[in-house]
Amino acid sequence: MEDCHSSHHYPDGKSSDILEKLDALQVNFLRLVHRLGQSSQNLVVAQVLYRLELTKQIRASNSNAKRVGLSIDRAKAIAREQETAGQGGSELDFSIKVLLLGKTGVGKSATINSIFNQAKVFTDAFQPATEKIEEIAGTVMGVKVKVIDTPGLLPSPSDQRLNRRTLRTVERFIRKSLPDIVLYFDRLDIINMGYSDFPLLKLITETFGSAIWFNTTIVLTHSSSALPEGPDGTSLVYEAFVAQCKNIMQHHIHQAAADTRLRNPLLLVENHPLCVRNREGEKVLPNGQAWRSQFLLLCISSKVLNDANALLKFQDVHGKQNNQRRPSLPHLLSSFLQPCSAPNASDLMLIDEVGEEVTDLESEDEYDKLPPIRILSKGQFKRLSKAQKEDYLDELDYQETLYLKKQLKEELRKCRDGLSINDTDGHNEGEPPPDTLPLPDMAMPLSFDSACPTYRYRFLEYSNKWLVRPVLDPHGWDQEIGFNGVNLEASFPIEKNLNTSLNSQLSKDKQDCNFQMECAATHIKEKGPSYYTGLDVQNLGRGLACTARGHMQLKTHKYNKAGCGFLMGSIGSNVFVGAKLEDTIAKKRWKLVVDTGVMASQGNMTFGGRLEASLRGKDYPVRRDQASVSLTMLSCNKEVLLEGGLSVQFRPARGTNMAIQANVNHKKSGQICVKGNSSEHIQIASIAIIPIVRALFRRREIQHGHPVTD
């Protein structure tokens, strides 16, 4: 007879030991299933066997093993032979620990007596029977079972303090030895259809963490009670009523754990001594199921899967999605390789960005040499011929371009002289700046009220460097203020070329509180190195994400700039660091940028590079006509990731701007975005008819039951 520990060919002994333990675990599970009288075709059994087989394949592929181990059919044969060889009544080296939670009076202690088929604990139908935490141990069908009985929780919201004290006592009790499965009890006959049980479930989540619900089974006692009546006066169908109660409990758990991925199994229990029994003497539910065998099957399945995860050291991602978020190194590196820009430092960045282009312009302003143009009225313009209209509009466009170039040269001159561009906006030279300036109006949501209080959203900018304004909630109600946060912006010019900025926002509603802050410092010299440092802080659920970055750029030639940068950050307990080198070659009509960098986190590293070429229009930077092509290549875990991008901005006609962006990756997936705006050709808005008509046809097909294809 072949044993489940038969040797296979493995490259290392450690992988052989783990795979042999998985084989032994699979055989023991099949033996327990045989003792429970369950078939291997049972849905729960089939799912456990599938996950065990998948676990062995993952381990074998990681260790380059030549064989995966025992097949499912061979494991079934070995388990059958061991059970029929006189070992069917012996105890297996298998034990489970169960934690019981639930409201008082729902039947936790009575269920313990039914599990062991004897009076292990005291029960009382009129008052709470469990006053302290107790451990009850025994053997059921050759399986060592240890049950942790806890005092019942009080359902009233006013008893939250007592419930919190009880749960903290339970949490300290199980801290050294965690249970394999948790049973949450409630009664099927008096289940609460409202939200009064939600505070209790939320308290359990706050005490034990969201991970407790991953190994929790919902237990509904009194499952043989009379069913309620439906709207027509007849009793409801048993399966439909049970499904309805399970959905209610599952919804409450989703809300308490903030995780809709949870799918908790359901166990129906009946502890009444007059309950119907089958030939083996087990209590049977109205659906014909022996609940004691089902209880053992669920507990054994959960224990087996937990042991398999422990062998391979799988991490449980349930309940940690808010606190533990592992950063994606390819995404971080791809974002890090993008061009660096300092917020709230546009005046200082103007010299570094467009200084060469403006210097190459004519030394004297052509706009001042132009003869004055006569602005025609609408009536005069209509009387012109078609050719005259085109010449008139071309002349206006030409003079507008020259005027914008003149303004840009003045702004650059002020930046070089250390003057702030914003200090002269809105008032004449030689006059003191005004104390306050009106800020632009916020984009208000649509309202059906003619007396909508729009004046509440108008604010002034004072002469100091601090700007504080509320954050508008676009989904607010009519007649409501709609403020759910505050935004703070500040800029502090320290020296001629040194500027610091602060931008933070805090928003709060009844459930969530979000905070984000961005601090930056910029030092730019026209003929020297430029430095930029920044710190970003924001909350991610209950965790905190911090990122510190820096960038230095040095002009090595008239048309060449070399730079380097670093990045350090943390998301929860995950820390990542990165560094990059870049080189830029820029002339008036074209620009070439080459970047290369590395990102590391938790022992993993990602390398990559980025190449971008840009072609600019003849009137750049006054007219933002340009086309850019980029290629990003990353190497992560022996896999090469490619992504290409295209960006085009141009003016197809006078008064019309177009922007096209497209990208595609190595998986042949991508997106295309086309944006257009026009002040003359308003018929371009008719394009919106296409998605409207398409949505109407899709809705019609869905109503008639036809399949919808994209």
From TrEMBL:
It is a single-pass membrane protein. GO terms for cellular component: chloroplast outer membrane. GO terms for biological process: protein import into chloroplast stroma; protein targeting to chloroplast. Its cofactor is Mg(2+). Signal peptide: none annotated. PROSITE patterns: G_AIG1. The keyword ATP-binding does not apply. It is found in: Plastid, Chloroplast outer membrane. One of its GO terms (molecular function) is GTPase activity. Residues 93-322 form the AIG1-type G domain. The keyword Membrane applies. Keywords: Chloroplast, GTP-binding, Hydrolase, Magnesium, Membrane, Metal-binding, Nucleotide-binding, Plastid, Plastid outer membrane, Protein transport, Transmembrane, Transmembrane helix, Transport. Belongs to the TRAFAC class TrmE-Era-EngA-EngB-Septin-like GTPase superfamily. AIG1/Toc34/Toc159-like paraseptin GTPase family. TOC159 subfamily. NCBIfam families: 3a0901s04IAP86. PANTHER family: GTPASE, IMAP FAMILY MEMBER-RELATED (PTHR10903), TRANSLOCASE OF CHLOROPLAST 90, CHLOROPLASTIC (PTHR10903:SF68). This is AIG1-type G domain-containing protein. It comes from Amborella trichopoda.
